[in-house]
Design brief:
This protein is mainly alpha-helical. It has helices at about 30, 40-50, 80-85, 95-105, 125-130, 150-175, 180-195, 205-215, 245-250, 255-280, 285-295, 345-360, 370-395, 400-410, 415-430, 435-465, 475-490, 490-500, 530-565, 590-615, 620-625, 630-640, 640-655, 655-685, 695-710, 720-740, and strands at about 55-60, 90, 200, 305-310, 320-325, 335-340, 340, 470, 500-505, 505-510, 520, 525, 570-575, 715-720. The strands form six sheets. It has a three-stranded mixed β-sheet with strand order 1-2-13. Strands 4-3-5 form a three-stranded antiparallel β-sheet, with helices on one face. The chain has a two-stranded antiparallel sheet with strand order 6-7. Helix 4 crosses helix 13 and helix 16 (about 435-465) runs antiparallel to helix 26 (about 720-740). The longest helix is centred in the last third of the chain and has 36 residues, at about 530-565. The radius of gyration is 32 Å and the shape is elongated. Its main location: membrane. One of its GO terms (molecular function) is calcium:proton antiporter activity. It is a multi-pass membrane protein. It holds the Pfam family Na_Ca_ex.
Length: about 750
């Protein structure tokens, strides 16, 4: 990443060689700029405030160590000095992250916010560290434990867990031999009713067993090196608790009674609490509490478990702290990740399995109805889209440019294309033209949503934190030009058919009873099959094939323009000035082979979910009173793009609106220049009812959206008001689609 052969793309910052400027170990915002004094320095410093949209630092020409910093720009002409104004340096943690950051700014590459490598623990914020910490840390006085989240725990879990522990305690007292466990359950009943501000300790092991316990555990009480996302602490080397190495203990009659009568019921209850709290995300501390109880507390001998209340000025004197919880709810757990996968994507993965089982096992709709299966299949597309995006970003970051470009071009639109192709195949088999119209509506909805809704929403949310946001108007201009070209090419056959087609109406009625009076006609459309389809087969269809070949060619030219000949427009340079603590090698979450396997499996599951969605959409289309246009432009168009919308919002919150805009533009360009030509070429090998002739509503909505987007992005800056305008226009178009009559053939 930092080789001399790539000096045009990645260069070292001035601060590494200049003795008078801060070293690279200091914050980059103060170390990347040259010293004051010269006109070039003041120019760079002024533009640094204007180019904050990338959330990065400006690039300054390399300064040889023999040259003092004031002569940084004296040896260059004014044109060279201006080059430091338009160049931007990104600070990456390692080479893999540098590749990912660079790919985010490359045309045609999927923009990805999440890290593809494990971030160093010392570089994380205190909020994030708390998410992954054990529930065994004693803190100082932190105020009252009576909070909304703690009261919510009491209402959802605390009261019935306490009652269950009381019942188990009574059962163990009845057995007589299990009386010690009965006393333990009685203490735990009070603990789980309100565990906040209390601790569960493991008392010191007697000397006769201390040597055994120490040799068995290896002394991992420090909690370092956690390897379990749910337990939040180190995984024991053995399932058996470390203090219970005496096999005679497990043959004790009281222990047998406990493992048969008490432990299973409590483990089942805590398992239910654990799963429920994990799915609610913000209650993950409760899930950790339950999991640690089942795997540690309930497997310890009762005489070695001490439950006590922690006084404000007291520190536990002796013994290992097993559990110490202060808050049941933490709203920052939306940042929680398991092996690099966001917790929401982890929680939605079982939904995919449920969808596939119900869809293919219950084929006769005995358990659930078709609308339910359609909804489940559509929701399952969201986590699969996330896994596909994560896999593409991981492979691209660990590969060269050619491999990354191929992977992005091949799988970048696989989610949408899978659904569209399965819908067209089903419509062709049933002879139903409605599926082709739904696909056209979904294509238009994706185009309009990515041009208006995605950047507008990012502007609104980003404008809440930042008063005014700036972006690279030149790079946005390249995407806008490609959008104009792609929209004009896609709708050229439609405009051609309007000019040369013959208007045919289903039925007409004379309103005035006068042969020269007004007529009211229904189901009117332009007939392209006049004279045995001469107009369509001789003129429209060749135009469609020509456009379908020219648009991908224009896409390739755009790639060559933005990535090769005019790459300076995007102004991306990766700095060697790594942040403190980044002198280690990158630890990737997914290796290339693992990412490839996940990519293929996700694509396979995506195909199955798309097949189920198209299989069970028929009752919705026939029985729903909502226009099929509206269903296509909203549900089918925007649900697969939700992971991209989330990425755009995260970029906007970090004042990186350039990537937020590029996300929408990139998807819109891919719809017109890749997805639609692929669908047209697919009809050559598998004849369907899909023709590249759209309704007037689709044409007007798309063209108006592109024109408005270019007007908003003209000056290179925006605020929440302009974003509100884009969002409102999008909702107005949705209202038009909602009240529009269903397309002909549906």
């Amino acid at each position: 990443m930092t080789g001399e052969g790539e000096s045009g793309r990645r260069r070292r910052c001035c601060s590494q060689d200049a003795p008078d400027v801060p070293k690279a170990t200091e914050p980059q915002g103060d170390s990347d700029g040259p010293r004051r004094g010269s006109l070039c320095d003041r120019h760079c410093a002024a533009i640094n405030n204007l180019q904050g949209d990338l959330g990065c630092h400006l690039y300054c020409p390399h300064v040889p160590s023999a040259v003092s910093p004031p002569s940084c720009c004296q040896q260059h002409s004014e044109e060279v000095c201006e080059s430091c104004v338009v160049k931007t340096t990104l600070t990456a943690e390692n080479a893999v992250e540098a590749n990912k950051l660079s790919n985010n700014y490359k045309f045609g590459f999927k923009k990805w916010k999440s890290h593809v490598t494990a971030r160093p623990w010392e570089d994380r914020s205190e909020i994030v560290k708390e998410l992954y910490s054990d529930l065994n840390v004693i803190r100082g006085p932190g105020g009252s434990t009576v909070t909304f989240g703690n009261v919510l725990y009491l209402l959802l879990f605390g009261w019935w867990l306490s009652v269950l522990y009381v019942l188990v305690a009574a059962t163990m007292f009845v057995t007589v031999v299990g009386a010690p466990y009965g006393r333990l359950c009685w203490d735990l009943a009070g603990y789980f009713l309100w565990p906040f501000g209390k601790v569960i300790q493991r008392v010191e092991v007697p000397k006769s067993h201390q040597a055994l316990g120490t040799s068995e555990t290896g002394g991992d009480a420090s909690g370092a090196g956690e390897s379990s996302a749910l337990l939040g602490g180190p995984v024991p080397r053995r399932w058996r608790p470390r203090c219970c190495v005496n096999t005679g203990y497990w043959r004790h009659a009281g222990t047998v009674a406990w493992l048969c009568l008490g432990y299973p019921a409590l483990a089942l209850a805590h398992g239910l609490v654990c799963v429920t709290a994990w799915l609610l995300v913000v209650l993950i501390p409760v899930a950790k509490l339950s999991a640690r109880t089942v795997t540690r507390v309930l497997l310890l001998p009762p005489e070695r478990v001490l439950v006590r209340r922690l006084r404000m000025t007291e520190v536990p004197l002796e013994g290992e702290v097993i559990l110490c919880c202060y808050r049941a709810l933490n709203p920052y757990y939306y940042k929680y990740a398991v092996d690099g996968i966001n917790v929401f994507a982890v929680n939605l993965l079982p939904l995919v399995l449920v969808t596939l089982v119900l869809g293919y096992v219950d084929s006769h709709n005995r358990l659930t109805s078709s609308p339910v299966k359609f909804t489940l299949a559509l929701l399952s597309i969201m986590p699969l889209s996330y896994y596909i995006g994560m896999a593409i970003a991981s492979i691209s970051a660990q590969s060269n440019f050619a491999v990354g470009a191929v992977v992005n071009a091949t799988f970048g639109s696989i989610t949408e294309l899978t659904f569209y192709i399965t819908a067209l195949i089903k419509g062709s088999r049933e002879g139903n033209r409605c599926y082709a119209e739904i696909v056209k509506s979904a294509l238009t909805g994706t185009l309009v949503g990515c041009v208006l809704f995605v950047p507008g929403l990012c502007m609104v949310i980003g404008g809440i934190r930042h008063q005014e946001q700036r972006f690279n108007s030149r790079s946005a201009g390249v995407s806008s030009a490609l959008l104009f070209l792609s929209v004009g090419g896609v709708f050229a056959p439609t405009l051609f058919s309007k000019v040369y087609g013959k208007l045919v109406c289903g039925e007409c009625h004379n309103v005035t009873q006068n042969p020269l009076g007004h007529y009211l006609c229904h189901n009117c459309h332009f007939d392209l099959m006049e004279n045995n389809g001469t107009l369509y087969y001789s003129h429209v269809q060749p135009l469609v094939y020509t456009v379908s070949l020219l648009l991908p060619a224009a896409y390739l030219i755009g790639l060559f323009f933005t990535l090769k000949t005019h790459s300076h427009i995007y102004d991306i340079h990766i700095s060697d000035c790594h942040m403190p603590g980044h002198h280690h090698s990158a630890v990737v979450h997914w290796s290339r082979w693992r990412a490839l396997v996940i990519l293929l499996l996700s694509t396979l599951c995506m195909s199955a979910c798309a097949d189920l969605a198209t299989e069970h959409i028929s009752p919705i289309l026939t029985n729903s009173t909502i226009s099929q246009y509206f269903i296509g432009v909203t549900v089918l168009a925007m649900v697969p793009e939700l992971p991209e919308i989330v990425n755009g919002i995260q970029f906007a919150l970090q004042n990186n609106l350039s990537l937020s805009i590029e996300i929408g533009n990139c998807i819109a360009v891919q719809v017109c220049m890749l997805q639609i030509p692929i669908l047209v070429l697919f009809t050559i090998f598998y004849p369907t009812n899909f023709t590249l002739v759209f309704s007037d509503l689709h044409v007007y909505a798309s063209m108006f959206s592109v024109v408005l987007m270019n007007y908003i992005f003209m000056d290179g800056k925006c605020d929440y008001f302009q974003g509100t305008v884009l969002v409102m226009v999008y909702f107005i178009l949705l209202a038009v689609y909602f009240f529009a009559p269903s397309p002909s053939g549906c």
